[in-house]
């Protein structure tokens, strides 16, 4: 059912993506079309300053300018990291004109005539180059820009220098609509990929096909973040170009790691070992580069060409390794390899466009990413369902085996019940548990030099309860007292029923503190008469004797006798009392009245009091 629900949810999400994409890509009516400016010129180097402190090349009569079709990567760069471009702007036909630029490599100043109207990045004395991210740029133009000259001063130590992507004059509103239209599909696919990542991570946490679903979660998450970080709408979400490029770099660099993990899961033998080496190489690159970037050792922009060079070598190698075992793969595994064969060329094409080897054009990388992610999820779900069927069949076999051993297990259960450490009536530990637990507590108290306090409680006149109201009523009184003792029990204490109406409690508390708690419990019993159904049993009380090691005895074993003597003192003093052992006042058990009765009267109970060695 979980699989059906997940697939249904994914279908609904796909329908939502299609609706959102259809709405976002509607063409507006009556809009003045955008214009791609032409007539660009360039010159290498940086301009000197004139007497007014302005770049001298802002003078339209300055010589040395050469024509170029597009303001990017002029010929004969020869190590130059500074270039100027200029353009004579056409007539203004827009109400709110802007110059929209997809990206700039790397930092730039824009002048209109001799006025600085826009700057991207920081300039350090005209020589420093610090990467400031690759956002899109929407440069506002005044209404009187007709016929004026636009200058771009650009610095870059990257493989490319200049503008990249689209450069168009348009209405500001149309620019925003274009951004949304170009981003709608990628953002929707990104949302689906991230949902698939969470979905796969949940299944990976379930334990079945953990490695497969874990690798899929990594791939879907990386591709989803990369698509979101590359979508133009990212700047409408958060205006942090460097932050977005850091996310894009990390997710982009993790793609071959996730891909290698997925493919290695399906391969065997030598291809699998080589695939593991390839994704481990990429993982090492990610760790090294992210560390250097965060430590401000290198600019983030310089890590892309190195990675792309590595990817050109490793991505075809991954595909070759996957195809190496084509005949040994089953139908589902071949589907994964085919989807990877679709995704890999798109990834390489996107890289070639980014470096200018292919003219700028949108690459449908999201389609390949989505197809690969969905195929991996679908196949893993199929395997997950198959494993569960096999587990169900194994479960049926186990049930049959269990049935044949039922009689033997029943006999063993009877034997174990005879060794139970629980009192069946009250649910407290019984005498067997008390003997073992108290012996262990005594040894620990001696070795650690801790206090060990023992209290023995006995219900007063319990025999009269049984004689007057019956044994069922007596049992209910025992259960009530057991519940109260358990409720007042503190951490590290143990409460046991020794037998009949006698209970024991041992603790690391001081005898005075334990006596005070037992007196409060006794007061609670005195305050409210006990009932059993409609039958009132009256006030039920208990007497308690307390002894503590090392205060009263030289060893924990002696506390049983000393606590019993203190209990006898409490009984002899009128019952309904808590007495702490005192060597000077407590009589010995040998001198006790041979007619000592630990059951006693109901009703006329005395108020609780602490008896420090007095009977």
Q: How would you characterize this protein structure?
A:
Keywords: Membrane, Nucleotidyltransferase, Transferase, Transmembrane, Transmembrane helix. The chain contains 15 helices and 17 strands. The protein has 615 residues and is an alpha+beta fold. The strands form four sheets. It has a six-stranded antiparallel sheet, with no helix packed on it.
- Determine the N-to-C terminus distance: 71 Å
Helix content: 40-55%
Backbone CA Rg: 42 Å
Please state the oligomeric state of the protein chains shown: single chain
The helix count comes to: 15
Mean of all residue-level pLDDT scores: 81
Class computed from helices, strands and strand pairing: alpha+beta
**How many β strands by DSSP?**
17
- The coarse silhouette is elongated
Which strand order do you get reading across the main beta sheet?
2-1-3-8-5-6
Region (Disordered): 585-615
GO molecular function, one term: diguanylate cyclase activity
Domain GGDEF: 450-583
Protein name: diguanylate cyclase
């Amino acid at each position: 059912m979980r699989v059906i629900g997940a697939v249904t949810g994914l279908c609904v999400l796909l329908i939502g993506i299609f609706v959102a994409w259809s709405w976002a890509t509607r063409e507006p009516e009556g809009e003045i079309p955008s214009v791609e400016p032409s007539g660009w010129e360039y010159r290498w180097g940086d301009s000197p300053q004139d007497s007014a402190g302005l770049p001298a090349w802002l003078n339209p009569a300055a010589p040395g300018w050469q024509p170029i079709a597009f303001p990017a990567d002029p010929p004969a760069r020869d190590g130059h990291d500074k270039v100027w471009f200029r353009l004579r702007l056409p007539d203004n036909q827009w109400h709110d004109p802007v110059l929209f630029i997809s990206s700039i490599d790397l930092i730039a100043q824009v002048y209109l005539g001799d006025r600085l109207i826009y700057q991207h990045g920081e300039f350090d004395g005209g020589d420093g180059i610090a990467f400031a991210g690759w956002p899109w740029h929407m440069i506002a133009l005044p209404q009187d820009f007709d016929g004026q000259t636009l200058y771009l001063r650009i610095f870059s130590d990257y493989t490319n220098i200049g503008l990249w992507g689209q450069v168009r004059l348009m209405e500001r509103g149309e620019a925003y609509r274009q951004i949304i239209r170009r981003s709608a599909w990628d953002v929707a696919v990104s949302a689906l990929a991230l949902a698939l990542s969470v979905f796969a991570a949940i299944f990976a946490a379930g334990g079945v096909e953990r490695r497969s679903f874990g690798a899929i979660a990594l791939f879907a998450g990386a591709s989803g973040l990369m698509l979101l970080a590359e979508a133009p709408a990212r700047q409408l979400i958060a205006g942090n170009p460097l932050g977005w490029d850091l996310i894009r770099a990390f997710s982009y660099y993790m793609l071959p790691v996730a891909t290698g993990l997925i493919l290695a899961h399906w391969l065997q033998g030598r291809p699998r070992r080589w695939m593991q080496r390839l994704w481990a190489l990429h993982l090492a690159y990610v760790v090294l580069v992210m560390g250097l970037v965060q430590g401000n050792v290198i600019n983030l922009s310089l890590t892309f060409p190195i990675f792309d060079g590595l990817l050109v070598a490793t991505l075809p190698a991954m595909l070759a390794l996957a195809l190496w075992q084509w005949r040994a793969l089953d139908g589902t595994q071949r589907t994964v390899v085919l989807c990877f064969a679709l995704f890999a060329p798109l990834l390489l094409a996107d890289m070639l466009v980014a470096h200018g080897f292919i003219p700028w054009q949108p690459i449908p990388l999201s389609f390949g990413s989505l197809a690969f992610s969905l195929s991996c999820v679908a196949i893993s779900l199929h395997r997950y369902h198959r494993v569960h069927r096999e587990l169900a069949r194994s479960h049926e076999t186990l049930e049959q085996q269990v049935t044949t051993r039922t009689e033997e297990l029943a006999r063993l259960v009877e034997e174990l019940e005879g060794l139970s450490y629980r009192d069946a009536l009250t649910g407290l530990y019984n005498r067997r548990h008390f003997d073992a637990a108290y012996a262990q507590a005594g040894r620990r108290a001696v070795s650690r030099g801790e206090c060990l306090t023992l209290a023995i409680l006995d219900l007063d006149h319990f025999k009269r309860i049984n004689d007057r109201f019956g044994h069922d009523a007596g049992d209910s009184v025992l259960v009530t007292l057991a519940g109260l003792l358990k409720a007042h029990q503190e951490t590290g204490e143990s409460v046991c029923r020794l037998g009949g109406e006698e209970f024991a409690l041992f603790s690391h508390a001081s005898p005075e503190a334990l006596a005070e708690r037992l007196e409060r419990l006794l007061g609670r019993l005195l305050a409210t008469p006990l009932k059993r159904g409609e039958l009132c049993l009256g006030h039920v009380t208990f007497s308690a004797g307390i002894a503590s090691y090392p205060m009263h005895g030289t060893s924990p074993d002696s506390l049983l006798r000393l606590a019993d003597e203190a209990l006898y003192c409490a009984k002899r003093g009128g019952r309904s009392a808590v007495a702490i052992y005192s060597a000077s006042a407590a009589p010995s058990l040998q001198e006790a009245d041979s007619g000592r009765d630990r059951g006693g009267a109901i009703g006329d109970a005395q108020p609780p009091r602490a008896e420090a060695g007095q009977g």
